[in-house]
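#structure-requests
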Amino acid sequence: MAEILKEILKDIPEKVEISLALFEGANIVLYTKNREFFLDNNGVIKEIVNKIKKRIEVRIDPSMTLDQEKAQEEILKILAGEEAGNVNILFDPQRSQVVIEAEKPGLVIGKAGEVLREIKHKTLWTPLVKRIPAIRSVMIENIRKVLYENNDYRRNFLHKVGERIYANWVSEKREEWIRVSFLGGARQVGRSCLYLQTPESRVLLDCGVNIAASGKDAYPYFESPEFNINALDAVIISHPHLDHCGLVPLLFKMGYRGPVYWTLPTRDIAALLSLDYIGVTFKEAKKALYTAADVKEMVKHSIWLDYEEVCDITPDIRITFYNAGHTLGSAMVHLHIGNGLHNFLYSGDTKYARTKLLEAAVTKFPRLETMTLESTYGGKDNVQPTREECEKQLVEIIKNTVERKGKVLIPVLGVGRAQEMMLIVEELVRKKIIPEVPVFVQGMVWDVTAIHTAYPDFLNNQVKKAIYHHDSNPFLSPIFKQVASAKERQQIIEETGSCIILATSGMLQGGASVEYFRELADNPRNSLVFVSYQGEGSMGRRVQSGERTFVMESNGKRENVEVKMEVYTIEGLSGHSSRNELTRFVYNLDPRPKKIIVVHGESSRCLDLASSLHKLNKIETVAPKNLEAVRIR
């Protein structure tokens, strides 16, 4: 038995009858045959937690739980008067847990958790509550099914993760150093991948693909001599855009079987986008880098954390996620390394402004010495208009296009920009600022939006208030129409009048947006509106730069496409921070870091932002290249 478990059991009274002590990742779980201790341990566990500074949960021994059929009857009887909507009940007998899925989970929890306590007291099952999405999400259903079907495997997997974390609970002081290597995303946008090493640990922060590139230029430098997948302890994903998470399933194809840490929305959306990436690759007659089975392995090895939940991931690294403001569930990853040795912030992509969808990125941390900072819009010329000015421009584009009986095509990132645009358009229609025209939401965008409805706690306070207190979910507006097939898409192009179309990809690199563009481009009544970053080499960047003739394939035939539609760019609606927001973000950081590593931007923007931040804040800055390493301690 691990030393930490022995230490804990020493302080547990003998009468408690602990039948099993094990790890669930960094958490420690004790199973007891003593009903009274399970329901109320009289502060015994709190004293131990204060001593060892680790999370401990007490559950009843599986042999003591109420029969599942009787327990379900009891739970439904307790919930009968709670008006919680549809309820699904799933039992996890090995862990003595019951999962209660509900349309209104707050009513299942009850005031100050009183309903959950009643369920626990009467059935001895430990209840877990999950939300049924307002829009049905097949992806969430499938993920929950995979986790349920692989319960035995996950129990063993999580225990092994805990054994690794607590392997050196009692150890001698060792040499201490920290080194970060950039396997992608340095002086470029795409394939973000940072490899962090200490004498004890090997951790990968993000693992993305550059969808605007081809061949090896699209993937991180896994062939780097220092990277060894067999020595990898953990993978941490900041958010679910493909340039940050698109190659996580490839790690599992390569043999990785360790944990992937992320928030719940990031887990679900990353799985969805990974499967979509396979589909797009297949449609382009290319060989996929990984299969659906690899995506399933990724889900099986997931560990999800809430914002500001502290979690050990290796013997010398503890992480905490903070809101990054970029996408639903996007996180800045704060790493506390060693016993107070160093605090490193991997910021991923950030938005330091409140949007229609999310709150602004957090700037207050317990400690902070070194951090990374994106520079997507970090150049001197990246001064963006205000969101009010952007919305005014969008209103004019939509009004003018509708007046001339045209269609508005908005290529979007399926995650973040799409849902932000939905909320903007919904408000404009609700307030009668623009004509009420149908808003067609292409398949994958709809699926991601369904996941948004499962996690309203991650949305900004205004949207949460509308959903929780006014029972008004903007994503359920009747103006939104799902497009689920190529036939429906063709009907929109040929038969439907003026409308707004939201489709991926945001860079016109594959996906439905390319098909819409090919069909709508030659009609001057139509409009194309870019609201996302257009990567170097992408078709979106070429259109944005003024190119007006393209050779595109349709049903296996090549044809010339003339761009006669109006083309607009609205940069201020991006989910990335503008130049001014980046500088304000750094200025407001508490505490102020001693070193900033500038990444995730075109080379000139990385260098420019690094130079400017150094002059403004008297902070050491560096803008490394791919394959360079920086020793931060």
